[in-house]
Write a structure and sequence with these properties.
It contains 14 helices and 17 strands. The protein is an alpha/beta fold. It folds into two domains: 281 residues, NADH-ubiquinone oxidoreductase 51kDa subunit (Rossmann fold), CATH 3.40.50; 71 residues, no CATH class. Strand 15 and strand 16 form a beta hairpin. Helix 1 crosses helix 4.
């Protein structure tokens, strides 16, 4: 019987249109817009100024706060300016704009395809180098990876979990990465194990990717302490707490992190980035992005330099279809509509979904009929209908007591609501407001 989590969950249409499309290298952009904040935490501090010449892999900005990450150039050329540019959030953020000239890389980056399996660095050296190379979680949250590997005093990790689930409909970048860079992901897993000081790693992959399960299982036979598990297709199987429950049957307490139950979760793409950082001296300046949609002419998976305008990705997939309704950064469940195709690809860009007009139109919002469907599908055991009402009346004290901060923004409640209530919108707003209140309170 396939493993899964028990509480809540839904099964939206998978629509893995691009799952068989091999990774294609996208051409380098003419101008790269590289935001200094592509991670959870404090924005990095620029190290370059207008007129500076930079190479591929050169540091552009330094993450000086505890929770921050370094930013590196994905292109070579001249710094045109440092300006506020609209990013995937829809807001203007400080961005380093580079006029591209050629493709000159830093000399110490190993650009060969040779697999390097021997790990020579110590535990501390691995963490320091992952920090230096700007590696963040590539599953969407973009939490700085070196911080996650620094187990707090009094806590102990005993298992590393590699998330190869990719439960979000349409997205296939992790699937293709496992199929084409499986060995590198496994070496990256060994690197992360060493950094954490654990002997066991579990890789979870949903059963709708049987080729990836077989491929990774066959490869893992040659790597001590790594086991691959097929998981039931159930959204949001790839959420950290749900994946931990499915694989090791431990429940992360409310308001706590996975380390509370001895687990650390990293995405398959993050394991690959760790391999490139440690074994190839390559900073995180490019990633695999899925560009897909029912009307897209050439849906695919593309290796894209950070800072590339999304418009160039769309053109590589055959252009914007005539019946396009929305362009989503991410998948249909957790993604957000983009305000412009000129926004750049960033470290957290796992996919771009072009939804046709009929699928992207929201139905008329009706009155809540107290059917409790949103409650039954919530994987965190919350009451979304109640939280929506509390946020609407701005009762944020009660919203906090009802544990809105436990919401993982999976959208299961929104998806299943027969009244078309915009539950996810209100839950996100509630988390934003309550999060601000908590931060303000902690400063007093």
């Amino acid at each position: 019987m396939l493993k899964t989590f028990k509480l809540g969950g839904v099964h939206p249409p998978e629509n893995k249109i691009s799952e068989d499309q091999a990774i294609e290298v996208l051409p380098i952009p003419k101008v790269a817009n590289i935001p200094i904040s592509q991670h959870l935490g404090v924005p990095a501090k620029p190290l370059v100024i207008k007129g500076d010449l930079v190479k591929v892999g050169q540091p552009l900005a330094k993450g000086e706060a505890f929770i921050s990450a370094n930013i590196h150039s994905s292109v070579s050329g001249k710094v045109l300016k440092i300006d506020n540019v609209i990013d995937t959030s829809g807001y203007r953020r400080p961005t380093i704009v580079i006029n591209v000239d050629g493709d000159e890389w830093e000399d110490d980056i190993d650009r060969s395809d040779e697999l390097k399996k021997e790990i020579t660095l110590t535990q501390k050296e691995i963490i320091d180098k992952i920090n230096k190379m700007g590696v963040v979680g590539l599953g969407g949250a973009t939490f700085p990876s070196h911080v996650k590997l620094m187990v707090p005093d009094g806590k102990k990790a005993d298992v590393l979990i590699i998330n190869g689930v990719e439960c979000e409909p349409y997205l296939t970048s992790d699937h293709r990465l496992m199929m084409e860079k499986g060995e590198e992901i496994l070496v990256g897993t060994q690197i992360l194990k060493k950094a954490l000081g654990v002997n066991k790693a579990l890789i979870g992959i949903e059963s709708n990717k049987p080729d990836a399960i077989k491929h990774m299982t066959d490869l893992a036979k040659n790597y001590e302490g790594i086991e691959v598990f097929g998981l039931k297709v159930k959204y949001p199987q790839g959420a950290e707490k749900q994946l931990i429950k499915a694989l090791i049957n431990r429940e992360v307490p409310s308001g706590k992190l996975p380390i509370e139950v001895g687990a650390v979760v990293n995405n398959a793409g993050t394991a690959f980035a760790a391999y490139e950082a440690i074994q190839k001296d390559k900073p995180l300046f490019e990633r695999v992005v899925t560009l897909t949609g029912k009307s897209v002419k050439k849906p695919g998976n593309f290796l894209v330099r950070i800072g590339t305008p999304i418009s160039e990705l769309v053109e590589a997939a055959g252009g914007l279809p005539e019946d396009s309704g929305k362009v989503i950064g991410g998948g249909p469940m957790m993604g957000k509509a983009l305000t412009s195709l000129d926004v750049p690809v960033v470290k957290g860009t796992s996919g771009i979904l072009i939804m046709n007009e009929s699928d992207s139109n929201r139905e008329n919002v009706l009155n809540c009929i107290r059917c409790s469907k949103c409650v039954s599908v919530c994987p965190m055991g919350l009451e979304p209908y109640l939280l929506e009402k509390l946020v609407m009346i701005e009762d944020f004290e009660r919203t906090e007591k009802e544990k809105v901060m436990d919401c993982i923004e999976c959208g299961s409640c929104h998806y299943t609501c027969p009244a078309n209530r915009p539950l996810l919108d209100y839950l996100r707003l509630g988390k934003s407001k309550v999060g601000y209140i908590i931060r303000t309170r902690s400063k007093k």
